[in-house]
Amino acid sequence: MEDIQSISDQLGIRRDFVENYGKYMAKVQIGAIGEGTKKGKLILVTAMSPTRYGEGKTTTTIGLSQAFKRAGKSVSISIREPSMGPCFGVKGGATGGGRSKVEPSDRINLLFTGDFPAVSAAHNLLSAMIQNHIYHGNELNINQERIVFPRTIDMNDRSLRNIIVNAGSADNRPITKDSFVITPASEIMAILGFAMDYDDLVKRLSRILVAYTNSGKPVYSSDLKAEGAMASILVDALKPNLVQTTEGVPAFIHTGPFGNIAHGTSSIIAAKIALTHSDYVITEAGFGSDLGAEKFLNMVSREGGLRISAILVVATVRALKSLGSGNDMESIRTGFTNLLHHVSNLKNFGFDPVIALNRFSSDTEEEITEVKNLLMDNHIEFGISEVFLKGGEGAMDLVNILIDKCNNDEIEVKHTYDYEDTINTKIEKIATHIYGVKSVNFQKSALINIKHIEQLGFSHLPICMAKNQYSFSGNDLGQDDNVLNVTSISVSSGAGFLVVYCGEIMTMPGLPKIPAACDITIDSKGNIFNLF
Q: What top-level class would CATH report for the domain 4-114+237-407?
């Protein structure tokens, strides 16, 4: 690895804007946005519907940036911070792999520069202040059965999904129900990703809906005077982190909202700093295009004024076979309809997407040829990605294709819905236009939520869909894919969106029977093994 100062020098960031965290990591002050003079082209990396282990979207993003560097281009990436929960669960780390990683990967996958602990601390401070207010007389007349702001922890722990607090002596009463969400699902994480500066951070923190009074009136964090203290915890966390890829490409890694239960992209601030200091910026959105890309196009880029020049869709033979429910050539052809659906969705947004066929060592030449033929038959541009094995060299075919896309006039995104649409209409448009379902089943609880949200005056907010990532409808593969089941809707008034929960989506994952954590260890020198 190069010294982090030389990485920031590549970008032309003034040294007084760079705060070193050791030799290989740094924080970049948000004032760097105004210092940059470039007008970078933004390339969004998304994917087809994934398998449970992912299809290599982050690895492709990193490897592609290295290919741009090999082609002599000024490039950087802007990606999310990993959550520790999945690192110790099934999926493992989220820093790429092979010859296309961000480094120091072990530090990034664990506590990094402390952003996740800061988000957790700010979140739990507000939770504590709610309970403390009730304990000391409850001047706001908070209904303890209608507290809507949970607690958080950055760990997969299903036992915390529903808990009882204040159990014990009489001093701890009243006994109430509570819950935890994983830190990537925290509204504070979303706020950090959307905040434009410190003033905006405080403003968003002040308007978090936390509870209702006994008479049904909303209670906000500002009523508890919590926003200042929360912002003070997040002062450093608002600054994007700067590290490097395996081949020395500058990498901004900042905020970590999940793609299936949150908006799934890195921060707007990180993207803006990258775009003002690089000619090309490659970013990614969580899971398939129906989740991360949909939210990026309908919500994140809209909110941040980010213009997108090209979109790359990561596909794999493994995912095609899985979606085709088999392990032969026919399953590839059947599963290919899923990839076509993603391509069609992105075309409807106004883009002509490029496919990155991420090659695995288990893929046969016959299988790769079959996918190539299917892509050519459908007039879809593509390139083979072998960045895990070859680094930037493994994505050179994609560079010229994407540069050509970026050289076209800036694309005006054709949004799926208008903010002025009703809540029901926005959800139905996403469901029918993006997921391809025939109808939406609003459960009674969701209809009650919608009516209440309208009364609060939040019906104009954009939609953040929370659903299972493995199928368009969120239903298990093989089940009815024609109906989207909406179970409930919550307000993230600080972040500025509505979260629509579909099916049995969980905001607190659990660990598998044999977690990845069982194999992780260190040696006598403190080197970490088996984290990935």
A: alpha beta
